[in-house]
Design goal:
Number of domains: 1
CATH topology: phage-related protein like fold
Strand content: 25-35%
Structural class: alpha+beta
Radius of gyration: 27 Å
Shape: flat
Order of helices and strands: HEEEEHHHEHEHEEEEEEEE
Number of helices: 6
Length: 304
């Protein structure tokens, strides 16, 4: 229908106030589980080192009564290390923008500090978990990089070569068994969405009743394996990788963050009518013994 002639509509009006709510909506995944659930220590150099050791293989041991004791060779410890990695986020806000009244925040610098700090936290999580190799940064144009979990786990690795093999309960338990045989005690499994659904479909998973809500929970948060209770944890950084990963972590005390420089906001030199800030950190990852964890690689995912 056509409105009566002369009807004054919003399209012709001048001066209508904007309808902008005083809230900023951001639902980007903020998943830093590994960073939050590992301990921290101090690094004092750009190459941070520690030592590991192992007991001799168990063997038959029976000695003749009255015989002289004979020394056996002493095995030295293994010395390993990881490079520290510098991570930062930099932003610059004009003085004019700081003076303007903006919706959803009182001060642009405070808002961007919070936002960039969260982004930096996600980048730290990415490095600690997904970095496959370390680099010494030996040249003036190469950055140092730390080796993350996916790079440290080398012994208990189950590699699936076929591109269409999905995660099965047998495959999952086989990797847990590898970890246990090396002396590890798997406690946490990190997976993406599709692999989490595969684990939820395992025939031996235990569905449990929530006492408070009296409802059936068809989701595996804890998997009772032959090698102990395993917490199954969704992680966005492992989501829908194809081929994908299933990371079986041992006791979390085997993974420690070593901070050379904790997260800090630094105001940079002023060069004009703007304020520039850098949020920076430098750290590395201690893998105190990679034999205590395991990983399944090359598994397939499909939502079809």
């Amino acid at each position: 229908m056509t409105p009566p002639t002369g009807t004054f509509q919003t399209y012709q009006a001048i001066g209508n106030r904007e309808d902008l709510i005083d809230i900023i909506i951001n639902i980007s995944p903020m998943d830093t589980w590994f960073t939050s659930n590992t301990g921290s220590t101090r690094a004092i150099s750009t190459y941070h080192e520690w030592q590991t050791d192992a007991l001799a293989t168990a063997a038959a041991n029976a000695q003749v009564e009255g015989d002289n004791a004979t020394s056996t060779a002493v095995t030295a410890t293994t010395r390993i290390g990881n490079y520290t990695q510098i991570l930062w986020k930099v932003f610059q806000i004009s003085e004019t923008q700081r003076a303007i009244v903006a919706a959803g925040r009182n001060d642009e610098v405070d808002y961007q500090t919070l936002k960039k700090s969260k982004e930096l936290a996600r980048d730290i999580e990415y490095a600690l978990l997904l970095n496959a190799t370390s680099a010494s940064g030996a040249s003036t144009t190469t950055a140092r990089t730390l080796k993350g979990v996916l790079g440290w786990i080398t012994t208990n690795v189950t590699t699936v070569s076929a591109t269409t093999v999905a995660l099965t309960e047998s495959l999952y338990n086989s990797n847990l068994a590898q970890v246990w045989k090396q002396g590890g005690y798997p406690t946490v499994t990190l997976v993406g969405a599709y692999q989490k659904q595969q684990i939820s479909g395992f025939t031996s998973n235990v569905r449990r009743i929530e006492a408070e809500e009296k409802r059936l929970v068809n989701s595996v948060d804890v998997y009772e394996s032959d090698f102990g209770m395993i917490m199954v944890r969704l992680h966005h950084l492992l989501n829908d990788n194809n081929p994908g990963y299933v990371v079986n972590l041992g006791v979390m005390e085997l993974w420690v963050k070593a901070w050379l420089r904790p997260v800090n906001r630094i105001e940079l030199a002023k060069t004009g009518s703007s304020d520039q800030y850098k949020i920076e950190a430098e750290l590395t990852l201690e893998s105190r013994n990679q034999l205590g964890s395991g990983m399944i690689t090359g598994i397939y995912y499909s939502y079809n």
